[in-house]
Amino acid sequence: MVCGGFACSKNCLCALNLLYTLVSLLLIGIAAWGIGFGLISSLRVVGVVIAVGIFLFLIALVGLIGAVKHHQVLLFFYMIILLLVFIVQFSVSCACLALNEEQQGQLLEVGWNNTASARNDIQRNFNCCGFRSFNPNDTCLASCVKSSHQCSPCAPIIGKYAGEVLRFVGGIGLFFSFTEILGVWLTYRYRNQKDPRANPSAFL
Q1: How many CB atoms lie within 10 A of CB 17?
Q2: Nearest to residue 172, comparing CAs of 104, 89, 99, 103?
Q3: Within the chain, what is the greatest distance between any pair of CA atoms?
Q4: How many domains does the structure of the chain reveal?
Q5: Domain-located, residue 20
Q6: Which of 39, 89, 95, 151 is placed for a possible disulfide with 34 were both Cys, Cβ 3.0 to 4.6 Å?
Q7: How far apart are CA 139 and CA 123, in angstroms?
Q8: How far apart, in whole angstroms, are the C-alpha atoms of residue 10 and residue 75?
Q9: CA atoms of 165 and 72, how far apart (whole Å)
């Protein structure tokens, strides 16, 4: 049976926003865990993840309050923000899935040259030095530098994971994009429904 009643629309909207709340707390927790265990030292990367988590949490909070109170203004702003997020997220997800190996390599090299802390994390965790070649004058935190073994370049190593990561991120992004357009549709229907507990002549 299609969910078309006031209570059903309200419950679905609340459940969707509770899901967004859990995802936002998960993002913030993963960033804190990465910093706490020393897996990530890049404040830029951690800052972006935490900012996305906080933004998602605020959106979910607005949607949850608007759904519980059937607040027209909050629901309207929630619907508009969710639609804009859908457009951006859907575009980014499609771009992640459409990148070929050459474009992935170019993207990785740009990131490598612009984030020193993330570069150090990669070299330390994957035991490699340099992107395509290693300059002995550069700093490398990999353990292979201290030993007699020759250090491998990082490009082939991270290139093997880049495609899988991009496909995973693109797939997750597409999944949540469809939940967002579902949220927009539910919000639109819910805003135009009457609350049966209110005055029957009042259209909220």
Answers
A1: 23
A2: 89
A3: 84
A4: 1
A5: yes
A6: 39
A7: 10
A8: 11
A9: 40
- Token pair 């998960």: residue: 26
Torsion of CA 91, 84, 4, 13, to 10 degrees: 100
pLDDT digits (tens, 9 = 90+) for 45-95: 678 888 888 999 999 999 999 999 888 899 999 999 999 999 998 998 888
pLDDT > 90: percent of the chain: 21
Which residues 6+ apart lie within 8 Å of 169 measured at CB?
A: 93, 96
Helix (H, G, I), strand (E, B) or coil at 152: strand
Is there a domain that residue 31 lies in?
yes
CA distance 181 to 83: 7
> Which pair of structure tokens corresponds to residue 2?
């299609």
Rounded to the nearest angstrom, the gap between the alpha carbon of residue 14 and the centroid of all alpha carbons in its chain is 21
Does any domain span residue 85? yes
For 92-144, the pLDDT digits (tens) are 888 888 877 777 778 887 877 777 777 787 888 888 888 877 777 777 777 77
- Is residue 94 within 8 A of residue 175, CB to CB? The reply is no
Cα–Cα dist 18/102, whole Å = 39
Q: What is the Cα–Cα distance from 97 to 38, expressed in whole angstroms?
A: 30
Torsion of CA 195, 199, 201, 204, to 10 degrees: -40
Answer whether residue 202 is part of any domain: no
Q: Which amino acid is present at 91? A: S
